[in-house]
């Protein structure tokens, strides 16, 4: 079992504190946490602080029992990569990062599984520099998934994908989190996808945590009006999923 908790976490660029006092309940193995908030709210900064790329006060408390796994893996918004490598080479390199460069059948099978699930096997031997933005994003997702970390931080991983691919990718990430016992934090703007796939929602605005809890506890009409400045309501569209309706139009 893996658990992650943030305690009074802050992050700074130089002397300027850009996020402050973020404290969460414990997140546990298999959970998807959607990190939502307006543009420039501090979501990317929070991820960099959790990943250890920024300094600041507070504590990232990670307790886990896994062995031989990378504790935290971070996928930034910028999906630029070494254009000299092929897609397959870049994913294999990510798989072996921080470990010995011996490749076994289990490595190859898992890489093939991830590439097939993300539908990128047809471009396996294309150079990264020749890919579209959406294809590069899928490769970055694969690079993060094949590391099999305890915690995955994914900063807007589906922003360049069409709706069909978004649902496919988020469904696969959810299944991997459950199967591998990972904790997955996803910064996402689509609140309907947050309602559909997240176990918990963490709301960031103005550099501070505004709420953290179940999707329907956090994503409600009052929050949408206060944080996003829109009049909206939440409606149940099936037994499983709710969605946001803005001014009579599904968001």
What is this structure, in a nutshell?
With 251 residues, the chain is α/β, with parallel strands linked by helices. Helix content is 32%, strand content 27%.
Give the strand tally: 14
CATH class category name of the largest domain: Alpha Beta
What is the N-to-C succession of helices and strands? Answer: EEEEEHEEHHHEHEHEEHHEEE
Strand order of the largest sheet: 7-8-9-5-10-11
**Mean of all residue-level pLDDT scores:** 88
* Count of discrete alpha- or pi-helical segments spanning 4 or more residues: 8
The CATH superfamily label of the largest domain reads P-loop containing nucleotide triphosphate hydrolases
Distance between the termini: 36 Å
What is the strand and helix layout of this fold?
Blueprint: E1 3-7, E2 9-13, E3 16-22, E4 27-28, E5 32-36, H1 43-50, E6 59-63, E7 72-75, H2 87-96, H3 105-117, H4 133-145, E8 151-155, H5 163-180, E9 183-187, H6 191-197, E10 200-205, E11 208-213, H7 215-218, H8 221-228, E12 232-236, E13 242-246, E14 249-250
Parallel strand pairs: 5-9, 5-10, 7-8, 8-9
Antiparallel strand pairs: 1-4, 1-6, 2-3, 10-11, 12-13, 13-14
Helix pairs in contact: 2-4
């Amino acid at each position: 079992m893996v658990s992650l908790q943030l305690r009074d976490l802050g992050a700074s660029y130089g002397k300027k504190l850009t996020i402050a006092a973020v404290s969460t309940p414990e997140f546990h193995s298999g959970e998807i946490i959607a990190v939502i908030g307006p543009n420039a709210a501090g979501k990317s900064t929070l991820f960099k602080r959790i990943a250890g790329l920024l300094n600041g006060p507070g504590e990232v408390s990670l307790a886990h029992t896994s062995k031989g796994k990378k504790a935290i893996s971070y996928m930034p918004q910028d999906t630029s990569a070494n254009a000299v490598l092929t897609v397959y080479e870049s994913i294999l390199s990510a798989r072996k990062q921080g470990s010995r460069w011996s490749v076994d059948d289990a490595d190859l099978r898992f890489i093939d599984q991830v590439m097939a699930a993300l539908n990128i096997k047809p471009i396996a031997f294309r150079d990264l520099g020749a890919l579209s933005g959406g294809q590069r994003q899928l490769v970055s997702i694969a690079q993060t998934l094949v590391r099999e970390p305890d915690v995955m931080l994914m900063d807007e991983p589906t922003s360049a994908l069409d709706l069909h691919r978004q649902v496919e990718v988020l469904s696969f990430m959810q299944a991997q989190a459950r199967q591998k016992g990972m904790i997955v934090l996803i910064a996402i703007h689509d609140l309907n996808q947050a309602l559909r796939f997240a176990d918990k929602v963490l709301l960031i605005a103005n550099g501070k945590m505004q709420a953290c809890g179940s999707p329907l506890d956090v994503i409600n009409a009052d929050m949408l009006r206060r944080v996003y400045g829109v009049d909206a309501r939440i409606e149940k569209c099936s037994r499983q999923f709710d969605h946001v309706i803005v001014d009579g139009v599904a968001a």
